[in-house]
Amino acid sequence: MTTYSGNCHCGLVKYTITLPGSIYEQDITSCNCSLCVRYGSLFVYFPKKEAKYFSGEGDLKKYSASFGSKLAHHRFCPQCGSYMGWQSVEPEASAFLPGVEGVNVRMLNDIDIAKLKIKPLNGLTGFGGDYEVGKWHGAEAH
């Protein structure tokens, strides 16, 4: 078992996660869904509620997004906006990966991103339906 500490950019949110081995042995996902490509996040997964928060958990802001019939709560620091990760929702029938939480590896301390086993995850079409993102095409010409 290996424990890692993490925090948001401003330090309001502080937590630890414990993984069955080194993070460098875990499959880390890089999702191409419409949210993750904007956040630039990388995820490690573990059972929901396993992260131990030392500060800021109650302050986290959430954005709930659905892909097809599945839903996840994406969580952010209210001060600096750091994307901390996501949690599955209740009831589990509508949850994306029921009983699982994904932590944004980029929020963990002292991790060498270049040494991670990063695997692509097809979130763009692989979650049972596409999510239409509104697109701004620039100011209209006058």
Question: How would you sum up this structure, described in words?
Answer:
- This protein has 142 residues and is an all-beta fold.
- It has one domain: Metal Binding Protein, Guanine Nucleotide Exchange Factor, Chain A, CATH 2.170.150.70.
- The protein contains one helix and ten strands, in the order βββαβββββββ.
- It has one helix at residues 36-39, and strands at 2-7, 14-19, 27-31, 43-47, 52-55, 61-67, 70-76, 83-88, 100-104, 117-121.
- The strands form three sheets. A five-stranded antiparallel beta sheet has the order 4-9-8-7-6, with no helix packed on it. A three-stranded antiparallel beta sheet has the order 1-2-5, with no helix packed on it.
- The longest helix is centred in the N-terminal third of the chain and has 4 residues, at 36-39.
- It is globular.
- The termini are far apart.
- The mean pLDDT is 82.
The chain-level mean pLDDT equals: 82
Q: What's the total number of strands?
A: 10
Distance between the termini: 62 Å
Quickly give the CATH architecture.
Beta Complex
How many discrete structural domains? 1
Order of helices and strands: EEEHEEEEEEE
Give the low-confidence spans: none
| Biggest sheet strand line-up | 4-9-8-7-6
Global Rg: 16 Å
CATH class: Mainly Beta
Content of β-strand: 35-45%
Q: Give the % helix.
A: under 10%
GO molecular function: carbon-sulfur lyase activity; metal ion binding
Pfam family, one: GFA
Organism: Rhodocollybia butyracea
Family: Belongs to the Gfa family.
